[in-house]
Design goal:
Order of helices and strands: HHHHHHHHH
Shape: flat
Distance between the termini: 61 Å
Strand content: under 5%
Helix content: over 70%
Length: about 200
């Protein structure tokens, strides 16, 4: 059987080029951005730790009786986080490990600041100082580029810890609890949405 040139060209022109599926495109996008995300996570954690340590000045001003312990916790969390991220960087680890390390550092940083600070006798100061915990939720959702589930899980741990502290350690009026609780929930919802 003989084909004319016109038949061959017609058949080739009608063939559709293969297209990548949505899942394949997402995987390609993630692979292409791995190196950039690892560098951004590394640099972001260094900046986050520096800012976290600078808040030691606020510890001294607002909770001076427990500032030593809060600052010690800040130093321990910061040093551990930096050591972990640098080890991952040198091992050329997968991006998911960088993300998990940064998420763990956020939660550990929140706990490292909150729990020593709650032991203060400066009850009025700590009742206002607790507003800064929202920064940790913002960090999980806005500062780092975590996948949505990791971001929500990290922020959710901070939110749950805040409510436990609010209920058991800061027994203020119901209006105080509603106002601060609403702020934290709003912060959680809005920053999760942005993520």
């Amino acid at each position: 059987m003989r084909h004319t040139l016109a038949e061959v060209i017609e058949i080739d022109l009608q063939a559709q080029p293969p297209r990548l599926q949505s899942v394949e495109l997402q995987a390609l996008y993630r692979r292409e951005g791995e190196v950039t995300r690892r560098m951004a996570s590394r640099q972001g954690l260094w900046v986050a730790v520096a800012v976290y340590l600078l808040f030691a000045a606020t510890d001294i001003l607002l909770v001076p009786d427990v500032a030593f312990y809060a600052i010690l916790a800040r130093l321990a969390v910061g040093a551990t986080a930096i050591a972990a991220i640098e080890t991952l960087f040198r091992l050329d680890a997968e991006t998911k490990w960088f993300d998990l390390t940064c998420a763990g550092a956020l939660v550990a940083g929140y706990w490292g600041w909150l729990f020593p600070s709650l032991m203060t006798s400066q009850t009025e100061s700590i009742s206002y100082y607790m507003i800064f915990g929202a920064i940790f939720m913002m960090g999980a959702n806005l500062f780092f580029s975590f996948h949505f589930r990791l971001s929500v899980a990290t922020s959710g741990i901070v939110l749950a810890t805040f409510f436990l502290a609010l209920i058991f350690y800061i027994p203020k009026s119901v209006s105080y609890q509603v106002a601060f609780g609403t702020f934290y929930v709003s912060c959680f919802v809005f920053t999760s949405y942005v993520n």
